[in-house]
Amino acid sequence: MSALENTSLAFIGSGVMAEAMINGLLREGLVGSEAITASDPRPERGQELAARYGIAHTTNNTEAARQAQVVILSVKPQVLPQVLPGLQGRVRPEALVLSIVAGARIQTIAKGLGHNKIVRVMPNTPAQIGQGISVWMSTPEVEDRQREQARTILMALGEELAVDQEDYLDMATALSGTGPAYVFLFMEALIDAGVHLGFSRRVAQQLVLQTLRGSVAFAQQSSLHPAELRNMVTSPGGTSAEALYQLEKGGLRTVLSRAVWAAYQKSRYLGGLTDE
After folding, report:
1. What are the backbone angles phi and psi of residue 241, rounded to the nearest 5°?
2. What string of pLDDT tens digits covers the 276 residues of the chain?
3. Rounded Cα–Cα distance for residues 73 and 118 (Å)
4. Is the pTM of this model over 0.85?
């Protein structure tokens, strides 16, 4: 039996990640479409989701949240300060509030809603195909049953990892939440390098995508450290050694570390904005 059986859900905000969650829940058969209501200020977006998934839609956040047992905050961080006041006192006291708003701290949400049963989540883009990873934590007031509901929702998006300190969520934002952007940039640069060598863009993309896919699968199946895996394909004086020398000389590790740190600082800054 699903932890979400006979549970009504309301999505406050109906963007890409909200749709990924709706799609995952329905794909896995965890809830029926009649259990989901999506709220969005654009009527056409609600109509699009209703046509695609058979869910209810509204432009009224209060209407969506009022009867829901799980309320999912999925708006952009800069919009949250305008959304919370309208929902204050309108969420059922026993309801679970699950937030995927980047940078928005639990204290901000609790104060803005006047509600303390909160789960804060940092998902990532591959959740759209059920291959994401979501890092999450809950307030002490969240019941065991509700924690299981949160875990069930997040497992529909891929893997989930519960933590006990909120700062880990800002770290996850910088590492796994923003991580796909780093991978896509690396992918793009590698494809461009292949085109520079003389491959067509189609062939270069095929080579790069399968190389990345295969390398990740190999690393997942292996018990070896990434450095050991790298050494396996790096012969002394060979082509890999020459390429890696240039990457290290260019400061790849340092630049990447700085990028992740900058994303972490930005996440904390966004959290400060939503506190205002």
Report:
1. -60, -40
2. 678 989 999 999 999 999 999 999 999 999 999 999 999 999 999 999 999 999 999 999 999 999 899 999 999 988 999 999 999 999 999 999 999 998 899 999 999 999 999 999 999 999 999 999 999 999 999 999 999 999 999 999 999 999 999 999 999 999 999 999 999 999 999 999 999 999 999 999 999 999 999 999 999 999 899 999 999 999 999 999 999 999 999 999 999 999 999 999 998 887 776 555
3. 10
4. yes
Q: Which residue has the tokens 């829940």?
A: 25
Q: Among residues 156, 172, 188, which one ends one of the domains?
A: 172
CATH of the domain at 259: 1.10.3730.10
The closest alpha carbon to 122, from 236, 242, 267, belongs to 267
Q: Number of folded domains in the chain?
A: 2
Angle at 193 between CA 188 and CA 199, to 5 degrees: 105
Q: Domain residues for 42?
A: 9-172
- Please report the DSSP string for 79-128 in residue order: THHHHHHHHTTTS-TT-EEEE--TT--HHHHHHHHT---EEEEE--GGGG
Task: Supply 112's token pair.
Answer: 């803005």
